[in-house]
Structure formats: C-alpha cells, structure tokens
Amino acid sequence: MLKPVLQIIICSTRPGRVGKSVGEWFAGVAREHGGLEVQVADLAEINLPFMNEPNHPRMQKYTHQHTKDWSERIAGSDAIVFVTPEYNYGFNAQFKNALDYLYLEWGNKPVGFVSYGGISGGMRAVQMMKQVVTTVQMFPMNAAVAIPNVAGMVSDDKQTFSPSEPVTKSATALLDELVKTAPIMAQLRT
Fold it and tell me: Is there a contact between 141 and 178 (Cβ–Cβ < 8 Å)?
C-alpha cells in the first residue's frame, strides 16, 4: 500500500532565515515517523514570481511553466504542512502568493502548521492562515507545532535547529493526525 504524500512547504524566503533549518528538522522527524512519503518544497528555491497568471486558478489554464510545475507538485500531494514564520502578527506574503497560484489542487487535503517566532511561537500567523486555507477547502489539523523563542534553538549560522522535547512531541502528534486523516480526505478527491 502506498503511503500518503506529505508536502512540507517552507514559507520563509528571507535571507538569514531560520525556516529552512526548522523545515529540514520537521522533514527528518516525518521521515523517521514513517507514515508518510515526505517531500519538501522550499519557496525560496521555487521562487514563484508575484502572481502572474492571466486566468483564475479555478480554471487551471496555466500559461507559465512555474505554475504548471507548482500545480503538479501540490496536486500530487495528499497532505500539506506549512512551515511558517510570523511577521508583524501575521503570515508572510510568499505563503499567500504560493497559495493563490492554485485553487483546486489544495482542496480536500489535511493541512498542518509548524510555526515559529518569538513568545507566541508564530500562532497568530497560523490563526490567520487557517482562515485562508479553509477557503480553498483544506482541512486544518488540531495538532500543531508552535516554536516559541526559536532563536534560542537555532545555531549561530542558522543551519541547525535543536528543538525542545515539547516541540518534538508536538511534531509527532501532528504527523499522527495527518496519517489518520490523509486517507479519509483522499476519498473526497476521487
């Protein structure tokens, strides 16, 4: 039996970001968990321009190769996890741009969040993101990974993330929820 495909999307594109190390850590935990086939999409590497498609995404009449590639990646996923910073109490523009490129590809998929920041651990951004993802018919998981004071868990060069035990436990809880929910949601897409 094939494992559901988990697409981990690293949302930060900022130079000097910690999102890549957090995303790579979560991908490692997900691979070790073993219940999902893990793929990672780094928005800094994908580098989607600000929405430049002439047609509404619902039509799926894409004119640019970068959109076709993005569509194929997301359509082939059974679950999504956004690894997200919190900027000024909200989500970053790159997340919203990547989401808005597509519509149907997101639908009927479970979505989880790994957020990081200062004292709130990025949860204010996640609350806003939940409102947006439900509009494209995604199903947010109750379990989440919130990483408060992330700067204290990242190496000086920002290449290595060393989480606390509660953060690691929350990652396992999120993955358990995604493993249970992804096959059920897949039935809605057939």
Answer: yes
Mean pLDDT of 32-55: 97
Give how many domains the chain has, as a whole number.
1
182 in Cβ contact with 189 (< 8 Å): no
Q: How many residues does the chain have?
A: 190
Task: Tell me the pLDDT band of 186, cut-offs 50, 70 and 90.
Answer: very high
Q: What is the percentage of the chain residues whose pLDDT exceeds 90?
A: 94
What CATH code is carried by the domain that includes residue 183?
A: 3.40.50.360
Q: Where do we find the tokens 């059974």?
A: 78
**Residues 133-160: pLDDT tens digits?**
999 999 999 999 999 999 999 988 888 9
Q: How far apart are CA 177 and CA 182, in angstroms?
A: 8
The range of the structural domain enclosing residue 151 comes to: 5-188
Alpha helices for the chain (secondary structure H): 19-33, 43-46, 65-75, 93-100, 123-135, 165-188
Q: How far apart are CA 149 and CA 61, in angstroms?
A: 43
